[in-house]
Amino acid sequence: MMWKGHTILGLAMGLPFISSPEQVFLLVAGALYPDLDHDVKTEIVNRGIYLSGSLVLINILLYLFKPSYFNIGFFIVSTAVLILYLIPYFANHRGITHTFLCMFVVSTILGFLTYKLSVFSPTIAGIIALSIVSSEKILGKVIPICIFVWIVIYLIFSGVEYPLIDFPGVYHYIVPVGIGYFSHILGDSLTPAGCNALYPLNYKLYRREGIILMGVWIFLLLLVIYNFVSRVY
Ligand SMILES: [Zn+2]
């Protein structure tokens, strides 16, 4: 699947689970991250590694020579970004980035990062998260799509009393990345090449497994709707 298909699938599968518009950017960030392992790799991943690697290096130098300037929060954030770029740098196409293991690691890191940045503005934090994982070529096209969906969601949520589900604290940011990521693995499983998502198990997911994943998603959706209905009525 190409970035367009993954963006649409990520939005379609994620929208029922969000409670505020900035989560739209995170759904798409999660849906696009796994493909950092190929065509856009050199362009964005190398730049990201130089940038975040330099920040980590500066932090280490500060720690060694100017400890009073060292900031542990800044160190953790720059190391987290560096890890986000190192994973696709060393990955083969449809390798480690297309696994559930990586889904948990990346959702946690990117979600935590956005959570930290959200003190300034949740929307800008969401846009930054998406920028981290998209190449310039894709970013220019995907941002207008996200902003359009952002506006639609904003209007819908200003009219309804309750979202279906509202994840608290850092999960508000981790879960949407995870759902977007899940949709990418599902989408690639439906293609003839399949997806080796159960690493370290050597078992490839194909169409049949993709349909099972879709069943898991429908089950979760029904669970959320059931909880919502029993809470409200
Ligand atoms: Zn892929």
From TrEMBL:
Sorted alphabetically, the keyword list is: Membrane, Transmembrane, Transmembrane helix
Q: Which domain of life is it from?
A: Archaea
UniProt name for this protein = Inner membrane protein
Segments traversing the membrane = 45-65, 72-90, 138-157, 211-229
Q: List the InterPro entries hit by this protein, alphabetically.
A: YdjM-like (IPR007404)
